[in-house]
Design goal:
Number of helices: 4
Shape: globular
Structural class: alpha+beta
Distance between the termini: 20 Å
CATH architecture: 3-Layer(aba) Sandwich
Order of helices and strands: EHEHEEHH
Strand content: 5-15%
CATH superfamily: Glutaredoxin
Helix content: 40-55%
Largest sheet: 2 strands, parallel
Number of domains: 1
Length: 83
């Protein structure tokens, strides 16, 4: 997860992922310019945070993560990433 602090959307995304027992690898783009550049490349130019990946699967930002959770898609993504 690419994030920064303070960021209420990042906190919401982390809380949801932690509730699903997902180990989060977090990159603070405000403290690490190289990670900010990497985020832009991996997301095709997305500039908002958080930007969330589950393994190599690009989920998107917090809104997309929350929507995926409500639809049940997040559980499928997490299960697919276990294998």
């Amino acid at each position: 997860m690419y994030s920064g602090d303070p960021c209420p959307y990042c906190r919401a995304a982390k809380a949801l992922l932690k509730s699903k027992n997902v180990e989060i690898e977090e990159f603070d783009i405000w403290k690490d310019p190289a990670k900010a550049k990497e985020m832009l490349q991996r997301t095709n130019g997305a500039r908002t945070i958080p930007q969330i990946f589950v393994g190599d699967h690009y989920v998107g930002g917090n809104e997309q993560l929350q929507n995926a959770n409500r639809s049940g898609e997040l559980d499928k993504i997490l299960k697919d990433n276990e294998t």
